[in-house]
Structures are given as C-alpha cells and as structure tokens.
Amino acid sequence: MKKISISLFLLLLYLSGYGQKVGLVFSGGGAKGLAHIGVLKALEENHIPIDYIVGTSMGGVVGSLYAAGYSPAQIEHMAVSSNFQDWVNGKYRSDYSYFFQKKPENPSVIALKLEIDSGFQARFRSTLVNDVPLNFGFIELYTQASAKAKNNFNNLFVPFRCVVADVFSQKVIDVDHGSLVEAVRGTVTVPMIFRPIKVDGRYVFDGGLYDNFPVDIMKQDFKPDFIIGSNVSSKTFTDYPKDNDDKLMGRLLVYMFLSKSDSTTIGKNGIYIQPNLAGYSTTNFAPVAAMIKAGYDATIADMPRIKAAISRRSDTTELDKRRQEFQKADGEVIFKNIIVNGVDFQQKRYVERMFRKFDNEPITLSDIKDSYYRLVTNDNFETVYPRIVYHPTNNTYDFEIDVKSSKNFKVDVGGLVSSRPISSAYLGLQYDYVNRNAFTLGANFYSGRFYESVQGTLRSDFPNRLPFYLEGEFTYNNWDYFDTNDISVQKTSPVYVQQTDRKIALKAGVPVANNGKIEVLAAYINTGDDYSPNNTYQNGDTLDISRFSGFKTSIAFEKNLLNRKQYPNKGNSYYVGLQFFNGTESYLQGNILRIGPLPEVDAKRQWLVAKISNENYFLTTNNLSLGYRLEGVISNKPLFKTYEESILTAPTFYPIQDSRTLILPNFRAQSYSAGGLISVLTLRKNLEWRSEGYLFIPIQGIVRSGLQDASYTNILGSNKIAASTGFVYQSFVGPISLSFNYYDDDQQRYGIMFHAGFLIFNKRALE
Fold it and tell me: Rounded to whole angstroms, how far apart are CA atoms 435 and 295?
C-alpha cells in the first residue's frame, strides 16, 4: 500500500506539472518595451513554456509578434533593423517617395495648406510622427497570421490578448478577435504621437492609458496556473526635473500616458520581472540591443525561481515544428475587392484606379504596397489609413483604405539670404482638384536684385495601371549679373551681363520604378542676352544684344534617391537626356567697342545635346559620408556670332552650391566631362563639415578670337578645378552655410560665402 501511495503521489505530481499552464504579461513603456524581447529569448532558451500572452502598448507589439509565430531571434532581428527605426520615427525608404509625382524642387521653407471653401483656414499637423510606414509594416507582419487564426486570437500560435483604451468611454478594451493588424496598431496609438484608429467601430488609443500591466486581463481570460509578468514602466524618475530640464520634460508626454504598474497584482503564483532600464528613455528607440540585453539579464537572474515554480518544459524541436507549421503560408495574399472610404464618387474612382491592375489580373500584396506609397505621396490626399479585411468563410481578402481629400490650396513661402547680392524671396501657390483625374494648377514667383522669375503650370495626372501626366508650363527668368560689390570675392574681371529667357512647354511623363521617370518635352523658347563685349561699361554705353528664338524637344530619364534637395549626404541620383534645338539667332551690336556698326545678323541654328550625370554617396556611416559626382555632355552646337554669346549659350557645369549665380566661362564648353569627390563629416546633430572638389575637362572648349569672334580649343583643352569647404547647419528654415569657395576662372577666384535658405531656381530655357 505504501508503494502504491508513493506511485500515485508521483503520478499526480507529474500530471500537475504536465497540465501547468503559463501566462506571460508584457507592460507598456515606450521604447523600453523592447526589453520584453530579451525576456522571450531567456524563457525559450531555458525551455519555459508560454501558453498565453497578454500585452499592452509596446508590450502588445512584442507579445503579438510572438503570438503570430515569430521566434525571439526573428523579433530581435526586426527590432535592430533599419525598417523598425523608420517605423517608430515616421520615415520610409526613399524607394517609396515616388519621384514621378513630385513637383520640381523649390526654395520653400514653410508650407500651408488651406481650404478655399472654409475661409482659407490653415491646417497644421496634429500628430508628431508620420504613421505611413508603421501602418503598412504591420499589414506585412500580421496579415497572414490573422488569417491563419480566422481572426480569432485564441487560434494564434500562442493565444493572445491586446489591450487598447477607448478614451471617449474611458474604458479598457480587451481585444480577442478581429484584425490583429488593427489591434496592435491601436495599442501603440499614443495620443498626439499617432493618429487614432477604429477597432470594432470605436476610436482607440494606447492601452497603457488605463491598464499598463494587464495581469487582470490574463487572469480573467485565460486563468493560467502561473504568471510571468515583465514590467518596463515606471511612474517615478530618479531625478526630479530641474528648471528648464528639457531632457526630462521632453518625455513628459509619453510619461503621463503610462498608468501605474502594480507588481502585487500577479499574486503568489507568479514571478515579477523588472529589467534594469535606468538611464533609458521611453522615446529613444536607438539602443535596441542594450535594452534587449537588460530584459534577458533580468530574466536569467530570476530563472532559478522560475524553474522551481514551473516544472513543465517545452520541447525545442516540437516548438520549432509547430512554429513552422503555423507560419506556412496557405498561398499568396490575393485581393478580391478594393474599397475606398471618405471621398466622393469621382475621387473614389481615382483612388481605385491607382490600385487596380489590368482586367482579370490578380492584385497581390506587393501591388498594394506600391500603390499605397503612390497614394500617400500624392498631394491631393491625406489621412490615408490601410486596412486588410479577411473573410474567413470563403478565405478571401479585401483591401480597404480610408482617405480624406487634402486641403486644395497650398502656399509655399521661402527665399534666400546671402552675403553676396543674390538674396531673394519666394512665393509658391498651388491649387489641387481631384475628379476622375487629378489636376494641379501652380504658380511661383521669385523676387530679388539678382534673380526674378514667374512660372505657371497646369498638370493633369492619370492614375492608370501605367500612370502618366500631361503638363503645360510657362516660365520667365531674368538674371542680372551686372557688376556689384561682392563681399569677400576676388575677381580679375567684372561682369556686365543681363539674361532673360521665356519658355512655353508641353510635357508628358511616365514612371520608371518608384523613384524614376521618363519625360518628353516640346517647347517654344526665347532667350535674350545683353552684354558688354569687353567687360567694360560706362553711363551712356549701349550693350550688345543677342537673341535666340526657336523650338526645343527633349527626352530624359531621371531618378532621384537623394535625402535632401540641397546638400545631401545619402542616396544617389541619375539623369540621362537628349535635347534638340532648332531656331534663329539674332545679333545687334552696341556701341562699346566703337569699331563701326555691324549689320544685324539672323542665322539659323540647329544642334543636339546629350547629357548624363550621376551623384552617389557610396559610403555612409553615422558620422561620415563619401560621395562622387560625374557629368558628361556631348553636343554639336555651333558657335554663335560673338564669343560672349557662344559662352552664354554653351552647356554649363555647375560644380558647387553658388555656381548658378556666376557666369564662369572656364566651366562652359560645347562638350565636356567633369567629376569630383564629396566628403560630409557630421560634427554634431544637424551640423556638418562639407568639402567638395571637381575637375572640369573641356572636350570642345571655347576661346576668344580677335575682339569678338569665338573659336574652339584643341580636343581636351585646358582642365579647370573648383573646390569648396565649409560648414552646413540643417535648420528648420533650410540649410545655413558658411563656405570657402575656389574656382579656376577669371570671373571669380576665391570667395567666402554665407547663405541661409536654398539656392534653387527655376530651370533655364536651354537647360
């Protein structure tokens, strides 16, 4: 009997351990929630079973990934990736900036969107972080797991609960079904950081608002035998903020949304783990590896107690087999319907056409992603929230998107302040209208002593499967190079030149990949140059006048992955173009040379120009970027009547930031090759030391012959160099730069230049 009793006791003990269910609870805590990944790693390595998971906020993200079948190693790999940093910072790769839809760069520093019908009221962004990459990132991570579970969170790889907060009813919502994507997106919606979304028809926010350590949900829904609770939040700072302590006060927003986490709620049948995260911020997601290690170390320290309390062990082979089986896709996600909400009928048709492929072709998740980023970079729409609707009854998917039409009137304000007399003001106006197609009416104005310009455009975008646009453009430019007292500039000869050009153009373009486009153009152009033939001028002098009127056609491929519109330090750009000019040159001599009047000259001119350029930053680290820029031009452009006009109409290499504000005859040639190296050293946040050096090789240069005539130099004529070094501060009003520049040119040798704002101008007619 004694032996039987001992055997029964051991059998009951074994059965008790075998049936022991373990629940894992993860708290919120912002970036500190990454420590939960270390907790998962330690538990799996020590074969501790995880039967249920409940999480809130960042704990909900980590817990949901595990519940969706991702291993701790896979979750860690995601967290240390650049994609994760993009999600939490609201950035997305330039591959998805969709260059085809971007308007030409301009020097604006402030943009206001207004609604004409509501009295020109300005719209300001109400959230701090762009949720575009996060929203689609969650779709890619969770869609198939949610479908595998038939939208029932009990059927996930590990049964899961996600905690969100309904701030209108001030209630905690325990989400146990529906879209896993939306449940997780809801639990990280910190008010004023991310925009709210609807879950089951209710606007929800971060679950940490009302229940930041949801042990109660674990007990209520799963009733486990043992609970492991990992808490990374704290309601107290070790140091009370001092006066103007921006570092601590800056975290106040997230801090105030984290409710108190009570460790005693776990009870006697549980283990409470609190990783040592002193010195880490709830808003700084950069030290991912260190925070994961803190969670791992804290769990390993408590492992003897955990093993003593939990006699059951998980089998690694069996766990991996179950995980692989759960992650095995039932087939590619194919979408049956595209559902657009929030816009009128015609705008709905416009959006639908962006997502639909050719008739009867399946729409894949990859297709949806490309079209989604096309839409979010479209000026005509805002509040673009994607949703995958899974129908368990017939195992089909719909793609649903909530769209709000953007304010239809945009005002851009900007300009340039410089130590040289090239300062200017900029105003841009844009009106958008979406019907079956999208229409954009634009105008911009530059005003300054050196440069004045007016441009008007009308563009229509057609969102077919192969989208294209048609655009009409009128541009007037006026450049006044008349000699002025430049500050800190060494010149050996003055400049007496005034240039104007006009262009009326029709353009059409199609996208090539996400950041490229092919554009064809047909235009009527008229250029005018008034100049001194010998760089002298006195009151009463009459300048020589040269004009060119004719037609221009071109085709160009352009791709831009640079991270900034001026002074980039990452990415690359390409341009390949072919232009044909056909027109008439007119010349009227002034009285400066006083060699007797020459007859007015009219001459037919035709020529081709082929150009290729590439700027690439091939090495980028945290503090250093190295790049190069290459450019080549081949043309059969004829010499014009005078040397000055031949120079002023020749293809031009603009090596450094202020090159477009100078004539620089030594960097102009009918055909040339050029290239150089760029170094950008980051000294501190937003402050860079930028150095550039270039070599210009005129393959067919132009030299003066006699008083006014022009002739060609020998093939591979005299090489020239240009260089610049200085500091650039990337401010909210654009770059602020102080640089020392050198040109191997008589027009300018050495110069110290300061400027605040962008050195960006409308394109010339001959460019």
Answer: 53
Is it the case that residue 357 has pLDDT exceeding 70? Answer: no
Strand-pair partners of 508? 470, 520
Rounded-to-integer distance, Cα 6 and Cα 1, Å: 9
Which value, to the nearest 10 degrees, does the dihedral of the CA atoms of residues 667, 672, 673, 675 take? 10
Q: What percent of the chain has pLDDT above 90?
A: 49
Q: Which amino acid is at 242?
A: K
| Rounded distance between C-alpha atoms, residue 441 and residue 429, angstroms | 8
Lookup result for tokens 């790889």: 157
Q: Tokens 């040798």 correspond to what residue?
A: 749
Compute how many other C-beta atoms are within 10 angstroms of the C-beta atom of residue 299: 26
What is the spatial distance between Cα 234 and Cα 231, in angstroms, rounded to a whole number?
A: 8
pTM equals: 0.76
pLDDT-wise least confident of 37-51, 527-541, 662-676, 750-764: 527-541
**Cβ neighbours around 366 below 10 Å, total:** 11
| Per-position b or e across 98-114, b if 16+ CB within 10 A of its CB | bbbbebeebbbbeeebb
Q: Whole-angstrom Cα distance, residue 72 to residue 123?
A: 43
Q: Find the radius of gyration of the CA atoms of the chain.
A: 33
Q: Is 618 exposed, middle or buried (0-12, 13-18, 19+ CB in 10 A)?
A: exposed
Tens digits of residue pLDDT in 123-149: 444 445 678 888 888 998 999 999 999
Q: Residue 604 pLDDT > 60, yes or no?
A: yes
If we measure between CA atoms, which residue out of 355, 353, 337 comes closest to residue 345?
A: 353
Burial of 188 (0-12, 13-18, 19+ CB in 10 A): buried
Helix (H) or strand (E) holding 317: helix 316-327
Q: Which residue has the tokens 């109660």?
A: 216
Give the 3-state DSSP-derived string for 367-399, with helices as H, strands as E and coil as C. Answer: HHHHHHHHHHCCCCEEEEEEEEEEECCCCEEEE
| Angle at the Cα of 210 from the Cα atoms of 207 and 214, rounded to 5 degrees | 65
**Residue 140 exposed, middle or buried by CB count within 10 Å (0-12, 13-18, 19+):** middle
Higher pLDDT, 244 or 553: 553
- CB contact at 8 A, 551 and 583: yes
Q: How far is CA 731 from CA 146, 282, 743, 757, in A?
A: 43, 26, 28, 9
